[in-house]
Write a structure and sequence with these properties.
Length: 414
């Protein structure tokens, strides 16, 4: 698997890609609409941030209760069911007069449902591209859990996510301004239904990757196996913590610039797109292996300048630059797959996704609380400083420095 053209020639890649694109637009537009709706009704930066990123907080529950289903449930039916559930729950959020407690209850259910989606989707992607690599005779990683197509395929999905987030935030911002947040929520519900139809019609039925019934016990057992290995554990921490804290900065765009939050979100998505293109396609393997820590440092550094309370135009440039650093996750995921047996790939990627989204939710809650006590600009600066400190600590804790990684031919941690 050597080119984007090869990816889209792979059976089932395109329908999975298009369904995920529709779901990303729906998620970004509905998140912005709900955050705006809550901020208008409460005036609280904390409640606005938690309403937008609250589903992420529930991911930790899903990771401990439901994640064994990522490899034990049929992918097509599971992905279609998740999209339909989101369509119904998003439509429910659009109901006029819905109490704030009910809003957060729906947000909690969304997070529980979403916790299963990442593992199913990324495990299926790894399976689709691994089969294509097998036909081409390309060898997998040391443990058989990675393939030459997964990094390129995941980078394409990340690029799509950046573009669709730009589209979703720009469209959502326009709809919120021209119509209302509730109209945006209803349109997002329709998009979720479209994503469900795309999965159902575009993917073939396939057996689960692992046998056995999904259960809480199986989830805990596999989580323990994945977490027990120190290199995997450090990789997970590098995927979760710096990223989650910087998303706490992003959660304060609405209170920082209520009239231009959509612009800031769109610029952040544009920067993420640039980072994914650079890491997934332009960097040679040796440079990519050394890039994780510098990219994570870049992810936090521009937000330190928010202490100066920059105007919206400058803030937009800063968030675009910072978001290039999200490309670090591709390097880290490549390493995670090289450390994971193929039968656990869906669970491992689901744990990554659930843990990442959980820490993003925690980051949003911490940043929102700090903003409530100080100001959005001060809270963003402090959260970014915490992200930079975590990146430094992980770089010191790991046993694989960038120079060693280059010699060994493996990605560096964090």
């Amino acid at each position: 698997m050597r080119s984007y053209r090869d990816l889209f020639r792979t059976p089932e890649f395109t329908p999975l890609f298009l369904a995920s694109a529709a779901q990303t637009v729906a998620q970004t537009a509905s998140g912005l609409a709900l955050g705006t709706l809550v901020y208008r009704s409460t005036g609280s930066p904390l409640l606005s941030a938690v309403s937008m990123f609250g589903p992420s907080l529930a991911q930790v529950l899903g990771a401990t209760l439901l994640l064994s289903g990522a490899d034990r449930l049929p992918p097509r039916g599971t992905l279609a069911g998740i999209s339909l559930a989101f369509a119904a729950l998003t439509a429910l959020l659009a109901l006029p007069g819905l109490p704030l407690g009910a809003v957060f209850a729906v947000v909690l259910v969304q997070g529980l449902v979403a916790s299963l989606g990442g593992g199913v989707r990324w495990g299926l992607l790894n399976e689709i591209l691994a089969k294509d690599e097998a036909k081409g005779g390309t060898n997998g990683g040391a443990n058989g859990g990675t393939n030459g197509g997964y990094l390129l395929g995941r980078s394409v999905f990340n690029m799509m996510s950046g573009i669709m987030q730009i589209t979703g935030y720009a469209t959502g911002g326009a709809l919120v301004a021209a119509l209302s947040p509730r109209v945006s929520l209803l349109l997002a519900a329709v998009l979720y239904a479209v994503a469900a139809a795309g999965v159902r019609l575009g993917l073939s039925r396939r057996a689960p990757r692992s046998t056995g019934r999904p259960s809480v016990t199986a989830t805990w057992r596999t989580n323990a196996v994945l977490w027990r290995d120190r290199p995997r554990r450090l990789t997970y921490l590098g995927l979760w913590l710096p990223n989650g804290l910087v998303v706490g900065c992003e959660s304060l765009y609405v209170p920082y610039a209520p009239g231009a939050a959509g612009t800031l979100f769109a610029c952040a998505a544009l920067g993420m797109l640039a980072g994914d293109v650079t890491v997934g396609r332009l960097l040679p393997p040796a440079a990519r292996r050394r890039a994780a820590t510098p990219l994570l440092a870049l992810l936090a550094a521009p937000y330190l300048l928010f202490a100066l309370r920059p105007p919206v135009a400058v803030a937009a440039c800063l968030v675009a630059l910072a978001s290039v650093g999200f490309g670090a996750s591709l390097v880290q995921q490549e390493r995670l797959m090289s450390l994971t047996p193929p039968g656990l790939s869906g669970h491992a990627l689901g744990l990554h996704s659930a843990g990442m989204l959980t820490t993003q939710g925690v980051g949003a809650a911490l940043a929102g609380t700090a903003a409530q006590l100080t100001s959005p600009a001060v809270a963003m600066t402090g959260t970014a400083a915490a992200s930079a400190a975590v990146t430094l600590a992980l770089a010191v804790a790991t046993g694989v420095t960038p120079a060693e990684a280059d010699r060994r031919g493996e990605p560096a941690l964090p």
